[in-house]
Amino acid sequence: MRKHIVGNWKMNGSVALLREVLDQVRDEAFAADVSVCVPFPYLSEVQQRLSSSQIKVGAQDVSEYDDGAYTGEVSARMLKDVGSRLAIVGHSERRRYFGESDAAVASKLARLLEVGLYGIYCVGETLAERDAGRAEARIEAQLAPLHALLARGATASQFCIAYEPVWAIGTGRAASGEQVAVMHEFIKRCLGPAFAVLYGGSVKAGNASALLTLPGVDGVLVGGASLDAKEFSGICRAAGC
Ligand code: PGA
Is 87 left (phi over 0), alpha (psi -120 to 50) or beta? Predict the structure, then answer.
């Protein structure tokens, strides 16, 4: 199976930066599925710049509601309308700073699937939870609301899971190979072996190949390194080996 490499720009970038980064990577023929998830205001610009590229554009969030009187929200239909192919939901920064619950994140995923967008559902434990031996229990709780979606017919072709330990995000301290392999295996046991599981947390060109060749790792979600064309293309190339 081709690996999936997803860049998550978070609340970073500018029109100038997206031109600089995308112009360097858009014509490369990577042996992986590559996507970039950018802030809402840049979706159209990125979609246009990538129209002849294999790289897909995605969003970093979506409303849990359908179109209507929800000031400040962006619906799944709107994302699709401007050319997005996918969206991240439930990133730990959204859970932590914006109080998103597991149930709300699952509703967001449901909205994506209804309009035919691919979802990346993020899960991850804090360091305190890991140190207390509760990492698997936390992940299981985050996955729990997905069972209702599966019962309604959602499949592994419509969404994947991103395992992002909170303590590994933006810290330069990626999880160890053993920690990653064990948790990916656990997630696949919870949902079914067909579900792709991406790893995220301090992925760089230098450690991408080691992470991507671990059992159960179907791709990576890349934050900081996706803002640097050389780093990001290095990661995408590592996925083809
Ligand atoms: P990082 O972020 O690669 O900068 O650690 C990953 C993420 O938050 O998706």
Answer: beta
**pLDDT digit string, tens, across residues 67-83:** 999 999 999 999 999 99
- What is the pTM (predicted TM-score) of this model? 0.97
- Tokens (6 digits) for 50: 């990538």
CA angle 202, 204, 208 (to 5 degrees): 105
Cα-based distances in Å from 167 to 141, 175, 200: 18, 9, 11
Residue 60 CA to ligand 1 center (angstroms) comes to 12
Q: In this predicted model, what pLDDT tens digit does every residue of 176-232 receive, in sequence order? A: 999 999 999 999 999 999 999 999 999 999 999 999 999 999 999 999 999 999 999
Q: Which domains does the chain have, with CATH numbers?
A: 4-238 (3.20.20.70)
Q: Which two three-digit tokens encode residue 141?
A: 């709780």
In angstroms, the CA 142 to CA 176 distance is 22
Catalytic residue among 4, 164, 184, 231: 164
